[in-house]
Design goal:
Order of helices and strands: EHEHEHEHHEHHHEHHEHEH
Helix content: 40-55%
Oligomer: single chain
Shape: globular
Number of strands: 8
Number of helices: 12
């Protein structure tokens, strides 16, 4: 982390978990142990049907509520989709874009991810843009090329003044839900690569202001080591964000001097 130039952000991604009633219970448990976040911003990205409940449940905490997805069109015949303006009207400030599960299961391309980034920014919502490689791609030696393509594609047409609102989340697909975790050095190397890509596109001043998260199975036991890497500015937390004690432990790791 480098708090001199950019903010640290710990974000939970609940995926397709938690009912409205479970969200309320989670909030009650979290209120008992939630620390005052000195150094990091915290948020939970919840299923769209839980956003209103989460907004009410977490209103007394310094914790923002984000969305897990959005459609790139403003409105239209897209049954089951949610637009940026709908999220904005609910008070959403963050949205996850291009998660590996969206790319894999819903066939989202780099071009679709780019459209979603613009839709979010045009609604004054900060996109958490996910990039990452599979185990096969890593072993084939194409990690750097793939990450560069994903980052450049996602940010195509995004002006420098809006880039400061974007968060990039590096999520090695081979370390999501598998129990495997990239070493701190491996994660740090790719996050440094991402910053170098942004530096080449926008210059050093802009690049050092962008928050880059690690999104591959960060948990209480490895959070401090990962966050000690100079270019890892937070985490996009999956399973651990469903458990108040674990989520708070990661927040505490981000709040260390």
């Amino acid at each position: 982390m480098n708090r001199r130039y950019r903010k640290t952000v710990i974000a939970g991604n609940w995926k397709m978990n938690m009912t409205a009633s479970e969200t309320k219970q989670f909030a009650e448990e979290l209120k008992k142990i939630m620390p005052r976040a000195k150094w990091c911003d915290t948020l939970l990205c919840v299923p769209s049907c839980n956003i209103t409940t989460a907004m009410k449940a977490f209103k007394d905490l310094r914790l923002s509520v984000g969305a897990e997805n959005l459609h790139y069109e403003k409105s239209g015949a897209y049954t089951g989709e949610v637009s940026a303006s709908m999220l904005k009207d609910l008070g959403v400030k963050y949205v996850i874009v291009g998660h590996s599960e969206r790319r894999q299961y819903f066939c989202e391309t780099d071009q679709i991810v780019n459209k979603k980034v613009h839709a979010a920014l045009n609604a004054d919502i900060s996109p958490i843009i996910c990039v990452g490689e599979s185990l096969e791609q890593r072993e084939s030696g194409v990690t750097e090329d793939l990450i560069a393509l994903q980052v450049k594609s996602a940010l195509y047409g995004v002006p420098a003044d809006k880039l400061r609102r974007c968060i990039i989340a590096y999520e090695p697909i081979w370390a999501i839900g598998t129990g495997k975790t990239a070493t701190a050095e491996q994660a740090g190397e790719v996050c440094s690569l991402i910053r170098a890509i942004i530096r080449n596109l926008y210059g050093a001043r802009v690049a050092r202001s962008v928050t880059i998260q690690y999104g591959g199975s960060m948990n209480p036991s490895n959070a401090a080591e990962l966050l000690a890497q100079p270019d890892i500015d937070g985490g996009l937390i999956g399973g651990a964000s469903l458990k108040p004690e674990q989520f708070v432990a990661i927040i505490n790791a981000a709040n260390q001097e």
